[in-house]
Predict the structure.
Amino acid sequence: MKKTLFILLALTILNCSSDDSNIEAPTEQAEATILGRWVLVGFEDAIRYEFTETKRFTLYSSDGVFPTLEEFNEENPGLTGNDWYYEGEKITVDLNFGNFSTLTPQFTCDNYVVKLLDDDGETHSIYFREDYDTSTCADIE
């Protein structure tokens, strides 16, 4: 009886093992959306932009440490951010007083980097998602 149980147990263990060599690792591609927190290339220690569903917030730092959006709103209750929206394939940000910035997003590097292009197709600015390792992306100049 003990031999039978041992054989059944051994067969069960052997049948449960699998060959993982055919399983592909999941891709680490972010969603192609402007929503979230972005770092402006050239101002990595000074500026963050955070896009919510309808607002763009500009967060500043003098020491490279940035508050969460909740902390920012608590510290600055009168600052409500800039309205923004998609207009076709372009992003329009209302900069107030009749000033608008309308640029076309071009997502690269598995959507962790976005180049904002002007109407001539020239790069206006480049942003990358906060905590993204930019050394893995050749598109950051």
